[in-house]
Amino acid sequence: MIDGIYGKGDFHTGSWQGYQGVDVDAVVNLGKTSSIHKLAIGFNQDMASWILMPQKVDFYVSSDDVNYKLVGTVVNDIPADKEGSIIKTFTLEGLNLQGQFVKVVAKNPGVLPPSHPSAGEKILDFCR
Questions:
Q1: SS3 for 99?
Q2: How far lies 127's CA from each of 15, 26, 108, in Å?
Q3: Would you say 52 and 121 are in contact if contact means Cβ atoms under 8 Å apart?
Q4: Is 47 helix (H, G, I), strand (E, B) or coil?
Q5: Which domains does the chain have, with CATH numbers?
Q6: What does the alpha-carbon distance between residue 69 and residue 98 come to, in Å, rounded to a whole number?
Q7: Engineered SS bond to 68: which of 8, 47, 49, 62, CB 3.0-4.6 Å?
Q8: pTM of the predicted structure, to 2 decimals
Q9: Cα(116)–Cα(81) distance, rounded to whole angstroms?
Q10: Which residues lie closer than 8 Å to 4 by C-beta, 6 or more apart?
Q11: Listed residue (106, 29, 96) closest to 74, CA to CA
């Protein structure tokens, strides 16, 4: 997510981080208090491969890695049954914040829907 590798449409390349059946819960330490004007994280969806978008992404900021303030939430608008490889960036823009730590929590949708051939299996989230 922070290594400068920016995954493209094909999730097979190894440039995506995958999480199965759990929420993505990541903290980024900026190293010092910094001005924050934009927060974003990208996700991939490939329904045939059990990879779906998170339900929503919450962004938090902290100056001490203990007390986090919710900055905003971006809700997914990509249907779970949309086929093909889809990339969506969940973004908050126009911010005027100060902080050293950014926490991102992406809510995993749980299990594949009844309409999927592998219904009931844990969903993968792939982020970059």
A1: strand
A2: 9, 11, 12
A3: no
A4: helix
A5: 17-111+119-127 (2.60.120.260)
A6: 11
A7: 62
A8: 0.86
A9: 8
A10: none
A11: 106
pLDDT > 70 fraction of the chain, expressed in percent and rounded:
88
Residue range 45-75, pLDDT digits in tens? 988 888 899 999 999 999 999 999 999 999 9
Locate 120 and state its tokens: 């009931």
| Residues 85-124: tens digit of each pLDDT | 898 999 999 999 999 999 999 999 888 888 888 888 898 8
Tell me, what amino acid is at 104?
V
> Which of 119, 2, 107 has the alpha carbon at shortest distance from 50?
119
- Tokens representing 15? 């440039």
69-75: strand order across its sheet: 17-20, 124-127, 24-46, 85-106, 56-62, 69-75
